[in-house]
Amino acid sequence: TRRDAELRRALADEQFVLHYQPVVALPGGDLAGVEALVRWQHPERGLLAPGEFIAAAEDTGLIVPLGRWVLRAAVRQAAAWRAGLGAGAPRTVSVNASPQQLQNPEFAAEVAAALDEAGLPPTCLTLEITESTALGGGATWTTLAALRELGVRVALDDFGTGASTLSLLVDCPVDQVKLDRSFVPGPGRDAIARAVLQLTQAMGVEAVAEGVETAEQAELLTAMGYRRAQGYHFARPAPAEDLFAHRVG
Ligand code: G
Ligand code: G
Ligand code: NA
């Protein structure tokens, strides 16, 4: 198809770029890590968000080579920040992974090789998967276990929006849960955010609140006991060179 050919060419021509969004510590807002978010610098249509091409990449299977590129670029960038910024560098880089990547029996070895090549410790990488990916079973769970054995951290993204049951957290152990932005608390609507925090604390899993857009939301989350947050209130996704321009440049 045309779509397929266009995506293939984009990969060959290196038209993809990564933006990074800070994950911060609460209270205080100090930098804790970054999430890598892919964009397509399209020659005619300009900068495209993942919503415009990830689904097509998944349908055509091109998500496997695209995901490989994203992973390698993100760990290289994280290693460069560590070398250049020292204690000021983000301590973790989070990378989104699609179901097909996790089902690939070579994926854990590829991740290990990318980390090794970049010189980034495995504990500095978090792979974000969605609940539907985590429900993959079989090959997916073997890959996740191999990754965690390496020291790579696994996060369950968009938590609370899937059709999953809580037993998923038992069947598919993860290191971090990202509360979906639809559950960011407001006055009189904080039950889900509270419940998810209690659940993660009971399981010894880190909780990250996503989609924090106001100071009031950040205060509510802090008062509840959230220690990690991400959202436009703190910082928008930006190119690597803009993120720490004031410190590196
Ligand atoms: O800002 P935003 O539009 O960047 O991202 C939208 C969605 O695209 C998010 O749900 C995110 O998980 C997904 N996404 C962003 N980057 C990647 C990537 O590199 N791989 C995959 N599989 N999904 C991504
Ligand atoms: O979890 P996921 O990978 O879906 O989250 C990344 C997506 O969320 C990206 O599209 C990113 O641009 C978007 N995003 C990040 N912070 C905020 C925010 O505070 N509000 C909203 N509405 N979207 C956000
Ligand atoms: Na994500």
From TrEMBL:
UniProt keyword Phosphoprotein, yes or no: no
Keyword Membrane carried by entry: yes
Domain EAL residue range list: 1-249
Region forming the signal peptide: none
UniProt keyword annotations, A-Z: Membrane, Transmembrane, Transmembrane helix
Protein name: EAL domain-containing protein
Organism of origin: Paractinoplanes bogorensis
Taxon lineage: Bacteria, Bacillati, Actinomycetota, Actinomycetes, Micromonosporales
